[in-house]
Amino acid sequence: MFLLRGIAVSLAFYVLVYCGFSILILSAWELVGSCGQYCVARRRADFLFTLRVLPLIGAGLFVLAFVVPSFVELEPHKSFELVGERPLALGSFGVLFLGVGTVNACTAHRRTLRAVNGWLGGATLMADRAGVPVLRILPAVPALTLAGIRAPKVLLSKAAADLLTPAELEAALRHEMAHVRRRDNLKKLIFRFCVFPRTAHLEAAWSEAEEMTADDAAVRNARDAVELASALIKLSRLAQVQSPPTLTTPLTQRTTASINGRVQRLMNWKEDRSPAFVPRASWYSWGSAVGLALTVAPKYSAILRGLHSLTEWMVR
Amino acid sequence: MNRFFRSTQPAFAQLGPLEQRLMQEIWTRGHATVRELLRSGNLGIAYTTVMTTLDRLYKKQLLTRVTEGRAFRYSPKVSQEEMHRAAAGDAIRQLLQSSDAATLPLSYLVEAVSEHDAELLDELQRVVEMKRRELRKGETP
């Protein structure tokens, strides 16, 4: 009964913190969503990714760092208390969230795998870029896309290969390799696991920022920018009508309006937009984490006691 | 789609020219009384005309009002964006109702969007080619 009660209480707190964080983030996003449009694309993409997964990470860390120690330390092990209605109801919600997230992620993975296997029929190896195979596929669409999480591969249609000049193809492939380095397909899989309504806008903004980040990484000078812009325009004409599988990253995945934005941005390329000039976002994250830990550490016991009182109230 | 677009308020295009002007003024100011609108000097119309038109907009549920002394202070009930969305919704609804064959108007829409997209891509291609030529010119000694 102790273990069952512990699991129910942990899941109850998980769901409360997860929903609280999600509501807070989405409300803040609705208010200030358009701010930061002019930030460096990589920083914006990192920030949006952190926002999107913060409920999952925040709730998980809160449960592991506070709820579980508080329960194990302060709850009498030989108590015959029942689980309680509130933890049971909230815990069921927690199981539901985690279950739906798992099903979502598995479904997206299975559908992507099925689509990619369909495209790979008759594919030939064209090149190998830093261990990532570039495969020429027979279907005209997807024109150029990145597929796979553990073993990523770049798929290039024969039509796209015929359409692009060598310089355009090189720029486009560098763009896809930037997605490989940033593990964007894995991030998309994590998004599918973080279930919450009305997150589509946040994900779309992240996706756009991620495309711009990959554009920045693929471009070293104004000539590269022109080649990539030209490749974007040419491949948008081959864009598929139906939406691509969730866990793939095509070069031209968004609307023509978005292509317009990216091309205009590339046409106004400035050398100082090179990724080398972007300060590392992880420094801020580590700094914040250390700061938070130093603030919490002296009050840790008091927090555990407070949390245990809350648990008692919940179980009653 | 209808769920988002259907509204009890009339679309912006359905308003008269004076109603549109006054709506625009109130959106710009956030809120205003008749006297404040006249004081700006841009309207060039009589007090009673403004008062009657604002009252009509209030009855059309486009403005809200609170009493302030002996006058009313009007504020917009819908944002400009909501109004434009409703207008787009009306246009799409009309298009969908314009033929007995349900798929035909949708094909017009897809065709119009595709044409627009193709034109935009052509324009972008021209810009890119121009930039490419510029860069080549800069490189040749």
Characterization of the model:
The complex is a heterodimer of chains A (316) and B (141). Chain A has one domain (2-315). In chain A, strands 1-2-4-3-5 form a 5-stranded mixed beta sheet, sandwiched between helices. With 316 residues, chain A is of the alpha+beta class. Chain A is built from 11 helices and 5 strands; from the N terminus they run αααββββαααααβααα. The mean pLDDT of chain A is 87. Chain A has helices spanning 2-32, 41-74, 85-119, 158-163, 166-181, 184-193, 200-218, 222-236, 256-267, 281-296, 300-315, and strands spanning 124-129, 132-137, 144-147, 153-157, 248-250. Chain B has 2 domains: 2-80, Arc Repressor Mutant, subunit A (Orthogonal Bundle), CATH 1.10.10.10; 102-141.
The total count of strands of chain A amounts to: 5
| Most strands sheet of chain B | 2 strands, antiparallel
Instruction: Write the CATH homologous superfamily of the largest domain in chain B.
Output: Winged helix-like DNA-binding domain superfamily/Winged helix DNA-binding domain
The termini of chain A sit apart by 15 Å
Reported CATH architecture of the largest domain in chain B: Orthogonal Bundle
Indicate the structural class of chain B. mainly alpha
Distance between the termini of chain B: 58 Å
The tally of strands of chain B reads: 2
Percent of residues of chain A in beta strands? 5-15%
User: Using only CA atoms, what is the Rg of chain B?
Assistant: 23 Å
Largest two-chain interface: A-B, 13 and 12 residues
Q: Biggest sheet of chain A, in brief?
A: 5 strands, mixed
Task: Give the overall average pLDDT of chain A.
Answer: 87
Q: What is the quaternary state of this protein?
A: heterodimer
